[in-house]
Design a protein that fits this description.
The complex is a heterodimer of chains A (387) and B (376). Chain A has 387 residues and is an alpha+beta fold. Helices cover 53% and strands 15% of the residues of chain A. Chain A has helices at 5-22, 26-32, 37-46, 64-77, 79-90, 93-98, 101-112, 227-264, 274-302, 308-333, 343-354, 361-372, 375-385, and strands spanning 116-120, 136-140, 143-154, 159-167, 177-183, 189-194, 205-216, 220-221. In chain A, a hairpin with a 2-residue loop joins strand 2 and strand 3 (143-154). In chain A, helix 4 packs antiparallel against helix 5 (79-90). By secondary structure, chain B is α+β, with helices and mostly antiparallel strands. In chain B, strands 1, 2, 3, 4, 5, 6, 7 and 8 form an 8-stranded mixed beta sheet that branches. Chain B has a two-stranded antiparallel ribbon with strand order 9-10. Classes of the chains: A alpha+beta (387), B alpha+beta (376).
Chain lengths: 387, 376
């Protein structure tokens, strides 16, 4: 695809950022699992913070393609850094979808100033099945009172503002789900346990405890019962970003293999076996195909066309690719790929979460199947085949 | 479990299950966390006779054979693949001496290895594109009454704990392609065991690089013939591959069991997720592939016991284990979702351990090569 000169500039900027601020420290942060706060400050300085926030609210307001390009570069350095930095874009999406001017001002201001936002949908009993949410929001005068527990909340421990999903009517199930804007300092909001994860270890994943948290009624995003719709639209927008993390991770694994084999055969007398060459060629095919699918999805979005299916395809394909490519890379490295100081073993751990978060790849397949197995599909087939 | 097992083999398997429950499983998580060599478990394995499973009774071993050994490795790996890896590395060295050693070497070395007084190891791999070819290859120069070893070996298992190492070197004069095997005592002057390599999994199983600075080995410590090491290397790696596949099978068996149990208690969309075909397909695929790999591993082990060639079957089981290992753990974690990804749950350790079972002794050649060449 053709990048505009501005997109090329930002891609180069992100690449430089990654080389300077992420790659040199990523292995240390993986070991210590310390939250890399400094990277958010640097991203702000570089103009790469909260990329989705529009200019009128103080953000850079980058287009979708630019966000993808930048996130891929970050993920090339470290998927945890990309999750943290990219997440600060994702958490803006519900506001872009359903926020009023006042709500946007309230929510975007602390993020533009260098703080974090967070998205709280998942609960211990409501993962893939977001509709079985048990957190409740009760209207009391001109306030809502929130009670419940959210989990796996990315960057929740450092967030200044949250979008929290809660049920305003449990009897309605999915149709009772409503989105709210909640500030960190609200009484009754507390951070519970912090996840110790297999990978993306320095990204912050926490439990969010809500006990009689009172918020003004005008903190409700959209109408009561519109929560699921807002969540689904948010995920449609967010999935290509997560897919780009997958491409960044896979591209890194491929590059590490290329470096490894060129070094191994630097004597000039030998070369990688055909088996090794084919594995790397397959990796390259998959990385390119994944990126193309992502950009196809956002080109539909930018044209105002439906893109849920393509967004789900991009997420599933790119993150399955990341997992597959990293496992293949580790096999090519052999015993060296097991060493703690080798980035390959980190990539294998990091890649796994990409198939899980932002909707498991099983949920993506449900979305895709739901879109292709429609009666209208048969009608257009009949036109094409005469049957 | 299998038509292939005798009563005696089944008895050994059930004994080891008890042993694992009592002495290995309780320590597995702390072993992963602190990464310290599990001396006590090794002593217990020795007391149980496990270190001499494949050693003939005349040398103090259990003479239980390789099928019992492979079944035991799977059982150990279900709880702790790191502990199993120590036994595997030891048994590969022991088996190597049993298979290729002369009467004097066997009489001198096997009793100590069988009792656990001496731990064994093999040192095969080197830096460089090919064994015996890199700048750091291990060279054996002729010296009065023996040889002097100079060079290095990488990623040697049981490093620092082993009393003897079976090492492969390029003996001079020679054409550089032919290897010679030597038995080297760990106490020999000039051996330097490098720092323990930090690895992503199999914590507690020690590997390190070992350098040899004119280490003397006598002619009596040459294993097999001069320049006869290549077939010994092939046999050794084939044996290691079968045992390592059993480690993979053990890990995967535990992982799929854990994921299946989780899927039964995890309720989404109003029912336990074990009812969803998407979940059943993942679990079933893993279970079927795991069973297949187990049978091929036991079959290869039975061939060793019968004294038949088993290198092709070993390559097949290595290929199956490569396809089984990491992919199965990816599936098992997927079933458990965000919970499976937590280091506080069982699967995270297995996810980190499994790559070590298939890759720690991976030669540059793909197992497909030998299999393809063997098809007639």
């Amino acid at each position: 695809m053709n990048l505009t000169s501005e997109q090329q500039r930002l891609q180069a900027l992100a690449r430089e950022f990654t080389a300077k601020h992420i790659i040199p420290v990523a292995m240390e942060y993986d070991q210590s699992a310390e939250f890399p706060m400094f990277a958010a400050d640097e991203a702000k300085k570089a103009g790469l913070n909260c990329m989705a926030i529009p200019k009128e609210f103080g953000g850079p307001g980058y287009d979708s393609a630019t966000q993808l390009l930048v996130v891929e570069e970050w993920a090339y350095g470290c998927a945890a850094f990309a999750t943290m930095l990219g997440g600060n874009g994702l958490c803006s999406y519900p506001l872009l979808i359903a926020g009023t001017e006042e709500q946007k001002k309230l929510y975007f201001a602390p993020i533009v100033a260098g703080g974090f936002g967070a998205f709280a949908l998942t609960e211990p009993g409501a993962g893939s099945d977001a509709g079985s949410c048990r957190t409740v929001a009760q209207l009391a005068g001109d306030e809502y009172v929130l009670n419940g527990v959210k989990c796996f909340c990315t960057t929740g421990g450092y967030a200044k503002v949250f979008v929290v999903f809660a049920s305003t009517d449990l009897s309605k199930g999915v149709k009772g789900l409503t989105a709210f804007l909640v500030e960190r300092e609200r009484t009754g909001l507390a951070i519970g346990s912090v996840e110790h994860k297999l990978g993306i270890r320095c990204s912050n994943t926490v439990e969010l405890l809500l006990k009689d948290v009172r918020i003004p009624a005008n903190h409700r995003l959209g109408q009561e019962g519109e929560g699921m719709k807002i969540a689904m639209k948010t995920l449609d927008m967010a999935r290509p970003i997560v897919a780009s993390i997958g491409v960044g991770v896979a591209r890194r694994a491929l590059d590490e293999c290329i470096r490894f084999f060129l070094h191994k055969h630097s004597d000039g007398k030998s070369q990688p076996s055909q088996a090794e060459q084919f594995v790397m060629a397959d990796m390259a095919i998959q990385v390119e195909a994944a990126r193309a699918l992502i950009f196809h999805a956002v080109s539909l979005k930018d044209a105002g066309l439906p893109y849920s299916k393509e967004s789900a395809m991009a997420k599933a394909f790119a993150t399955d690719t990341a997992m597959h490519v990293c496992v293949e890379a580790q096999q090519l490295f052999g015993s060296k790929g097991l060493h703690s100081d080798c980035v390959i073993q980190k990539l294998v751990r990091d890649a796994k979460v990409l198939q899980i978060y932002e909707g498991t790849n099983q949920i993506q397949r449900l979305v895709i199947a739901g879109q292709i197995l429609r009666p209208e599909a048969v009608k257009s087939m009949s036109q094409a085949t005469g049957r | 479990m299998s038509y292939a097992m005798t009563e005696e083999q089944e008895l050994i398997q059930s004994n080891i299950r008890e042993f694992v429950t009592e002495h290995v499983a309780p320590l597995a998580d702390s072993l992963d966390k602190n990464g310290e060599y599990p001396s006590e478990a090794v002593v217990k394995m020795a007391e149980q006779g496990l270190l001499g499973l494949v050693v003939p009774a005349e040398f103090g071993g259990l003479e239980a054979g390789y099928l019992s050994f492979v079944a035991s490795v799977e059982e150990l790996s279900r709880a702790s693949a790191a502990t199993a890896a120590i036994l595997v590395q030891h048994t590969v060295a022991t088996g190597c001496i049993g298979r290729w050693g002369n009467a004097e070497q066997k009489g001198r070395l096997l009793p100590g290895l069988a009792s656990g007084e001496t731990l064994g190891s093999v040192a095969v791999f080197e830096n460089g594109p090919k064994l015996g070819a890199g700048a750091e290859a291990l060279i054996a120069r002729q010296h009065e009454h023996g040889y002097l070893l100079k060079g290095a070996k990488i990623d040697v298992g049981n490093a620092g704990k082993a009393g003897i190492y079976v090492v492969f070197a390029t003996a001079e004069p020679g054409d550089g392609k032919k290897l010679t095997a030597f038995i080297v005592s760990a106490g020999q002057k000039g051996i330097r065991v490098g720092p323990i390599t930090k690895c992503t999994g199999l914590h507690g199983y020690q590997t390190a690089d070992i350098s040899f600075d004119d280490v003397f080995v006598s002619k009596e410590d040459m294993l097999g013939a001069l320049h006869g090491g290549s077939s010994i290397v092939g046999w050794t790696l084939a044996l290691a591959a079968v045992a390592e596949a059993a480690e993979t099978v053990g890990i995967v068996a535990t992982a799929v069991k854990h994921a299946a149990a989780y899927s039964k208690q995890r309720v989404q969309f109003g029912r336990s997720i074990s009812n969803f075909p998407a979940v059943q397909i993942m679990l079933a695929g893993v279970a079927a592939n795991c069973h297949a790999a187990r049978l091929v591993a036991l079959d290869a082990a039975a061939l060793i016991d019968q004294g038949k060639p088993f290198e092709v079957e070993s390559a097949m089981v290595k290929l199956l284990a490569l396809n089984l290992g990491q992919k199965s753990l990816c599936e098992a974690v997927q079933v458990e979702g965000g919970y499976g990804y937590s280091e506080e749950m069982a699967l995270a350790r297995l996810y980190r351990d499994v790559a070590g079972t298939t890759l720690r002794n991976s030669p540059a050649e793909f197992p497909e090569k030998l299999i393809a060449e063997s098809i007639a």
